[in-house]
Amino acid sequence: MSTAQPKGALAEALSMVPGMLGALARTRRAMREGSPRLPYKLECFLTWRCSSRCGSCHIWRRPTGIERDAGAWAATVRSAGPGLQWLSVTGGEVSQREDLGEVLTRCLAAAPGLRYLNLSSNGLHGARLETALEQSLRVGTRVRVRVTLSLDGVGDRHDATRGVPDGFLRVLDSAARLKRLSQHYPALAFTFQCTLSAENAGEWPRVARLARRLSVGLSPVFSPASEGALLG
To answer: Is 153:193 a contact under the CB 8 Å cutoff?
Structure first.
């Protein structure tokens, strides 16, 4: 496997810098003048439902509560105003939402100045994720869409860490679907995120090699666990 960085990853990161720095500078200036601007980034937790059973995260144990519908999320995005440039969509597992495609498309329509949409997923529901993303990409061609799929090991180690049999194969299926989709929609790129704990710390070199081979346009992300067995 090649360990080379994905083509365009550095260019992708650098291309975002001017817009984000400009938004930050305008916000700071407005705060000094006593008229703070509305946020340029908004993070939306669409659901607390999750099909993973990770030991390092217990979101899947919490009550799901009442989920806001697509119209309510669109209204929230619209309320952020014209300065909104970056929308982050997460959970729980976003693909647990049967209306994920509708949520994304309505939120995109509610933010005409949006530049960047990022979405995180455990990759267990590839067909649903693919359908939702394609629906939003059809209408949001001006927006760069970036997806991270969870990958906490290779093969059985991923399945054991995530607590889902055949989870690794399902993540690979999601990656294959996103790769095909990216060939039709250049605005889409994706990579993998590995949550490191004492349980899988030794896996990171293998995860990095696999992630760099399969990703499109982005480098893999590694982050420490915040709960459960932490790195020692």
So the answer is: no
C-beta atoms surrounding 180 within 10 Å: 10
Angle (CA) 13 85 121, round 5°? 70
| pLDDT tens figures, 76-109 | 999 998 889 899 999 999 999 999 999 999 999 9
How confident is the model over 150-177, as pLDDT tens digits? 999 999 999 999 999 999 999 999 999 9
- Give the Cα separation of 48 and 46 in Å (integer): 7
Has residue 7 got a pLDDT over 90? Answer: no
Backbone angles phi, psi at 196, to 5 degrees: -90, 135
Nearest to 152 by CA among 119, 122, 190: 122
Q: Classify 60 as helix, strand or coil.
A: helix
Of 165, 163, 164, 214, the residue nearest 193 (C-alpha): 214
Taking the C-alpha atoms of residue 187 and residue 114, their distance in angstroms, rounded to an integer, is: 13
Q: Three-class SS of residue 191?
A: strand
N-to-C CA span, the chain: 29
Q: Which amino acid is at 134?
A: E
DSSP state of 88: E
126 close to 174: Cβ distance less than 8 angstroms: yes
Q: What are the structure tokens assigned to 17, written together?
A: 């810098």
How far is residue 10's CA from residue 226's CA, in Å, rounded to a whole number? 28
Please answer whether residues 53 and 10 qualify as being in contact, where contact means their C-beta atoms are separated by less than 8 angstroms. Answer: no
